[in-house]
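Co-fold these.
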Amino acid sequence: MSDEKEKWMEEVFQSMSGGQRAKPRLELFSKIENQITFSKAKIVSLRQWKLAAAAAAFILLINTATLIYYNQSNQMNEEEVAVVDTYEESIINFYQIYE
Amino acid sequence: MQNDFDLIQAISNKEEQAFATLYNLYSEKIYNTALSYTKKEEDAEEITQNVFIKIYKSAATFKENSSVNTWIYRIVVNTSLNYLKKKNRLTLFKNSLTNAQTIDFEHPGVLLENKENAAALYQAMDALPNNQKTAFILSYIEELPRQEVANIMETSLKAVESLLQRAKKNMRSELEKIYPHRRKSKK
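Predicted complex below.
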């Protein structure tokens, strides 16, 4: 009984010897090749996309801020010119008193 | 004819023909080893695919201080173990699925008269920790020389012998449990 069990166990341990190797499906090679061809093309990762988008947003923000600042300072200059004009006019008027 | 080193060199230079030659030389070894770990043909194919992609990507970093065969087996073992680890983490009903796979698994390459014994072997192998399982698969299923197994596992020959001894001991106690059922099915 015990000998029979021992014999069976040895048979189990040797059960894979003399067998053939299992073969993968033929399609597997083209599947792998496709993956490799795919990875040969320049892949832009999601992280790179995010970085590019962040950089673009940053540049846009800087440009918008510059534009707003430029417009505001232009407006201020126009107001200052108007004030100076009024001032000069009042001086002229002042001198006219003595004429 | 190119040797394995030349093939790896050519693959690192993106030569597709060299890659095809390497595939023809190693795909069965890789698939077979992966199948011994996963016991599922689809999983073994996925591992084979991952291994070849890794070979393609890391061919340039291959160092000649080990043989190509050793290097590739090392990639297969690591990829298979990581694949199983990841899969087990994702599987909710891990235990029930593993048991079902173990009982159903029939290795496609095994001789007809050994089918039942081979199924028992794979079932007993499930009880082994990873390092014992690796030593057993490489020695008894891949039938690699012990020194090559030691090189793949980056350990000593003595350590491999010890792992195999422990693996067989653990498997024997598993086979003890299977033995009565095996006898019943024989009657």
